[in-house]
Amino acid sequence: xxxxxxxxxxxxxxxxxxxxxxxxxxxxxxxxxxxxxxxxxxxxxxxxxxxxxxxxxxxxxxxxxxxxxxxxxxxxxxxxxxxxxxxxxxxxxxxxxxxxxxxxxxxxxxxxxxxxxxxxxxxxxxxxxxxxxxxxxxxxxxxxxxxxxxxxxxxxxxxxxxxxxxxxxxxxxxxxxxxxxxxxxxxxxxxxxxxxxxxxxxxxxxxxxxxxxxxxxxxxxxxxxxxx
Length: 228
Fold this sequence. Notes:
Blueprint: H1 2-35, H2 42-52, H3 64-94, H4 97-106, H5 109-112, H6 114-132, H7 149-157, H8 160-187, H9 194-223
Helix pairs in contact: 1-3, 1-8, 1-9, 6-8, 8-9
């Protein structure tokens, strides 16, 4: 009975991770779409940033939608990280070291780097919020604040070390999304045949390349002064 409860608990935690992961994928897709407005120039990018603050008005207060979104994402983040920690601890306790070594030899790079990749993304998220949202740190001059999102973006990504940090984070995000998509589809029961597993692996690559690659376009094109 105790083993059965533990198994059900593990399945539930994996489901929570899958659902919270899907929420993050949807968010980063929309966020990436918003970032690509930078290719349309300063007015289009700033108009989009201003539009986000008016979604839901007059039912919601100014920026109300953004705060709802932030709260939902924060809850999803706590759930996702918490479940990951518990599941990792259970797996480490249940499996002998020899099994872990054997499994690692046959696993993909994305699965082996899942934990470190997640930590990298979490640290990057903190920096990203300080850079563009909470404090609005301009790395090019050390100033904070300001109400021109486009100029902050350009000033940030024409600073080489900022772009390098961003690209490293996108590599980590790509690996995380690749394995995370596969794991989520497996948890949801969509990998029960050879063809389904092939499709799940392909979906993982598509999600990883589209999102991580799409996010990388703006900093790269800004660094090389295409976006300026």
